[in-house]
Each structure stands twice: as C-alpha cells, then as structure tokens.
C-alpha cells in the first residue's frame, strides 16, 4: 500500500509540472496577443518557478494520497496553486528586500534590471525598472494561484474550504512580511519569540501548515486529522525557518545557492541575531553586521562570535525541538501510519538540508 | 420601471458600502489577533477605499439591475470585488510611480513613509518603508477581490464566468502597466495609438468593460448583450482615460484632487504628449517636461505649447469620438432602453468630469 502511495505521489508531481506548464502556456498565448514584452514577462515568471523543489505541491500530494485521495489531477492543481502563491510571495518579498538574485540567478527583478542596464540606463533607473516589473509579475502569480484553485474539480463546499485555506495563507504571510518590515526599522533586535512568530506567519503557514491542511481537506479527511496536520505543519515550518536562519550564515553557498554573507550584510533579524543580542558579544557583533560594505573578514568574525556566544548551538537546539514537537503530532490516531512516515521524511529533510 | 431600477441601484450602492464594511471589519478582527501594526495596515487600506466614487460597483449595479437582476446582495458583492481590485491596482501603481499622494491625501505608501519620517528615519529609508508596505497592502486587496467573488451566491457556471472576467481584468491591467513602465524608459514619445492601447489595457478594461460584462453575466444576459456592453465599456473607458490625460494637465486641482503639474513633471506619456511629439513644438516641450525640478512657470509654458500645437484640441476631439462610438453600441437591440439611458449618463459624466 505504502509503495502505491509513493508511486501516486511521484505521478502527482509530474502532474503538477504538467498543470503548471499548461497554465503558463495558456498565459503566454494570451500575453503574446497583447505584446511581445508581455510574453517575455510571462516567460521570465515561468522560469522563476523552475528549478525549485516544488516543496509545497509535494506536501499537498503527500497528505492527499496518504489520506486515501485518488484524484491526482485535482491534488496537482491544488499543489500548483500553492506553487504559484509561493512564486508571488517570493517575487514580492525580493522587491521589498531589494534582492535581485535568487538561487544564484537573476530573479524577475534582476532580469529586468539587467536588461535596463544593458540598454544603457543609469543604475538607479534600471533598479527601479526591475522592481516595478517584479511588482507586476507577483500580482500575476497571485492571481494565478486563485484561478488555479478555481480549476480544481471538487464539490463547492470543499472548494470553499480550500479557498479559505489559501486566503489564510496570504493573510498570515502578509502579516509576517509586515512584522519583518517593521523589524528592519527597529534599533536593536527583537526577542527570539517575536522572530519565531514572524517566521511562522511569513513562511511556515503558507509553506507547510496550509498545503498539508489543503491536501487533507481535498482528501475528505475529518476535522481532527486536518487540525493535527496543521499543528504538525506549523512546527515543521518553524523548524525549517530556524534552519534557514542557520544556513543563511553558516550554510555552504554551493549547496544553499545563496550567499552566506547576505543575511549578515543586511543585518537580517534572525533567531541567531536575536539570541546574540541578549549576550555581551552584541556590542561587537552589532557593529559588524548590517553594513552594505561588509568585507569577508568581518563576516568571518561575525560567524565566530555567533558560535562563541552560543547562538549557533541555541538555534540548532531550537530547530531540533520544533522538529521533535512536529513529530509528536504524528502520533495522533488521526494520522495514518503511511502519512506519518512520509511526513517524518519531510521533517528530516527540512532540518537536515544544506548539510 | 426605470425609476424602480434607479432605486435598486441606489439601494445596491448602500449594499456595496455594507459589504465592504463587513469585509474590512472581518479582516481587522483577524489582523488584530496577529498584531496591532497589522490592524493599522488594514485600517489604512480601508481608508484608502473611502472617498472615491465607487464607480466600478456603480457600473456593475447599473448593468445588473437594468438587465432585470434582482439579487442586489450578489450584485453588491461583485461590485465590491471590483472595488477591491481597483484598490489593489492603484496601490501598486502608486508604488511603481513612486507616488505617495492620491486625491490630495497620503496614500497607503504615503502614510507609512510619513510614519517612518516622524520616527526619525532618513528620507530614503522612510520612502522604502512606505513602498514596501504598499506592496503588502496591494496583495491583500487583490486577494480580497478574489475572495469577495467567492462569496457571491450564484450557480457555479456563473461564478466561473465572473472569475474569468476578473482574471481577464487583472491580466489586461498588468499588461498595460508593463507597457506603461516600458514607455517611461523609451526616449521620445510612442505614437498615440500605442498610448491608447496602453490606457485601454491598464485601466479601461478593469474599470468599464469588465464591470459591465460582470453585471450582465450575473443578470443572466445573453452573450450578444454581454459583448455589446463589453464594446461600449471599452470605448467609454478609452474616452475616460483621454479625459484623464487632459485633466492631468489642464484640470482644476481642487476639482480633480490631483496636482496639475504631476503629469508634466513626471513627463508622463499621455495622448497630449504623444500628439505634441509629432509637431515642431516638441523641441521646446521635451526640454521642459519630465524634470523633477520643474517650476510652475515651466508648467504654464508647457500648457501653452500643448494648446498652441493643437494637442489639447486633438485630445478633446478624440475623447468625443470615443464617447460617440461608445454610444453607438447602445443602439444594439440587445441593450434595453433603460440600460442605454443609464449608460449614456455614465459616458457623459466620464467625459465631462472635472469641468
């Protein structure tokens, strides 16, 4: 039985790719009728969705198939809706963070900034153009997420539940993004609990909690099972984010695909920084981070401090605690053994990635 | 009968206000559970929807009631969805245009920029904070539009048609916004036809064509009536945009609520500018406009040139032509006389506003 589910999941993942291919093909056809530059924007947006792990559709499919769902096309469409939501949120998050690179490649704003630079525009103008197109592209992906959900063949009651879950995901993520923007303007560092809350809202809800609940709802699971998966998703998502904070400073650039200086240079408020801010080493650390002109030597020193003051150990323990708490929810009698095993794998890969 | 429809429209407009009040009340309650700053963001977003004419809901209601629809709550919800879409698009458009004021008041980004300035942040930082919050707020309004449509009680077939119309509206608007962004980076001015095309996509589709079609679809009108209304909406929307271009330069600030120097200072590519660019006066005009340091004397000279070279007359004629073409679609036998009269009023007020 278990093998059958895994096979279904793999078939489902191919289906997600096909659904997204179809979505973009239709959009590109429509866009081309408007202008060639609109077609290019859709091509750029599509490229930005390729190369990722498509983690959220995977989670939807795992929950759905392991809870007995058999309509892989419907599950793939729900998964694709979450992938489009993810695309929208990261494109807009990158605009807010003034990031032009993701996974070592130009992101949507980066592509358009580079095009403007190549056309001879001054740096500031090219930057603004990149950000402007990023805003438009994110709006299209967000609209696509809701339209994708409309295309799921299911009864109206289930569709309304799914739309509610997607809405809650956006609502939480926007709230978390706002707190994150607020942090970047506060002097000092907020307490660890506030950082965790922000990370849960901004990323964990839409990446773990919501896709799990959506997969379960689509499979017709009972309210208790949906709630248990939601709790599991929440804790896994927090563990994932804490690991993200660790990788952002100590990660291997070639494995994570992102600069291990970015977070430090930006002075990003992470669990590591929040912990360090409560220790005497903050005096030195706060002078090193958050400087656009940070040199590799300063970054090395900042890493040393984060190890010495115990921030790295603290964050590693915290991730392990949340992972363990996540696993405890799998013991619920509402979670079938096969699903528990599949989710256990998701926790492990979330916590051990980049190693 | 006609009076009854007008009464229905007025009741419907109150219903739109109630629906939007309910939407924001529920969102604020949810937001408050997350953080007080998230509550403030929703309050700011709500304020930004008040004070406008709520033109798009009006159009939905006119089409719906005049075509025999009687479920005012459903029509109000469709209207509210378009109002939320409008909010999302103008909030993001203002971010792209780096505008912090709308209708003489701080817009969402303006409110947050001012808060950051008051808190002592440097101008550049405060500006970025305002723009960041604007991106988040627009995403929430866009999500709200799709959720609002989900709440319309109607059969699944009609709901799917309505969702398709809303999707087309976003698709067109994003395409128009992209062309507009492209224009702002092109030297010289594009031809008038391209300006009209951009304005149609960016604003006319979602403001006129789509609300009319949505109201008609909800009323169960036949495909021919829906198509005739779509054509009417397209031409009215273009006339409206050309008048917007005129008001942006020649309008009375106290009537339009926007600076009559803004478009000139920005060097915005409008029908006026596109026309002037084909005339010998462009040599002088192009040196005056598009300068952040433009003084009132330069603006007066630019207006004189736009009158002398015939751009003002040309734009006025163009608006009248589109208004006349719009009215010609009302002669279709698919458009009831009462609806034709109501729409005729909409054309007149679109073309004569700000006078």
TrEMBL record, chains A, B:
Q: Record's PROSITE patterns?
A: POLYPRENYL_SYNTHASE_1
Q: Does the keyword Magnesium apply?
A: yes
Q: Which GO terms describe its biological process?
A: isoprenoid biosynthetic process
For this protein, the record's InterPro entries field holds: Isoprenoid_synthase_dom_sf (IPR008949), Polyprenyl_synt (IPR000092), Polyprenyl_synt_CS (IPR033749)
Q: Among its keywords, does the record have Magnesium?
A: yes
Cofactor(s) the record lists: Mg(2+)
Q: Name one Pfam family in it.
A: polyprenyl_synt
- The name on file for this protein is Polyprenyl synthetase family protein
Instruction: Please tell me the species this chain comes from.
Output: Arthrobacter caoxuetaonis
Question: What is this organism's lineage?
Answer: Bacteria, Bacillati, Actinomycetota, Actinomycetes, Micrococcales
């Amino acid at each position: 039985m278990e093998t059958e589910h895994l096979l279904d999941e793999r078939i489902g993942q191919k289906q997600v790719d096909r659904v997204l291919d179809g979505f973009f093909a239709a959009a590109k056809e429509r866009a081309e009728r408007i202008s060639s530059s609109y077609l290019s924007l859709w091509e750029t947006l599509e490229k930005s969705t390729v190369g990722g792990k498509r983690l959220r559709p995977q989670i939807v499919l795992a929950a759905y198939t392991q809870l007995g769902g058999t309509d892989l096309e419907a599950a793939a469409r729900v998964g694709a809706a979450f992938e489009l939501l993810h695309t929208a949120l990261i494109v807009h998050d990158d605009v807010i963070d003034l990031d032009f690179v993701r996974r070592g490649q130009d992101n949507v704003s980066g592509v358009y900034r580079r095009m403007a630079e190549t056309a001879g525009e001054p740096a500031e103008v090219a930057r603004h153009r990149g950000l402007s197109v990023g805003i438009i592209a994110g709006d299209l992906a967000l609209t696509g997420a809701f339209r994708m959900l409309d295309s799921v063949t299911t009864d109206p009651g289930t569709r309304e539940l799914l739309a509610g879950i997607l809405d809650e995901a956006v609502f939480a993520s926007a709230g978390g993004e706002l707190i994150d923007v607020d942090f970047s303007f506060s002097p000092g560092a907020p307490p660890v609990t506030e950082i965790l809350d922000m990370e849960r809202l901004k990323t964990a809800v839409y990446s773990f909690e919501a896709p799990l609940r959506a997969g379960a709802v689509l499979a017709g699971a009972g309210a208790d099972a949906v709630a248990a998966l939601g709790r599991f998703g929440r804790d896994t998502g927090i563990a994932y984010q804490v690991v993200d904070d660790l990788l952002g400073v100590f990660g291997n650039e070639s494995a994570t695909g992102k600069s291990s200086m970015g977070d430090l240079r930006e002075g990003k408020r992470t669990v590591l920084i929040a912990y360090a801010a409560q220790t005497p080493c903050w005096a030195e650390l706060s002078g090193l981070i958050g400087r656009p002109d940070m040199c590799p030597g300063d970054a090395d020193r900042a890493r040393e401090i984060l190890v010495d003051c115990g921030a790295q150990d603290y964050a590693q323990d915290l991730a392990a605690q949340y992972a363990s708490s996540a696993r405890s929810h799998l013991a619920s009698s509402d979670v079938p053994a096969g699903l528990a095993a599949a989710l256990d794998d998701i926790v492990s890969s979330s916590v051990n990635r980049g190693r």
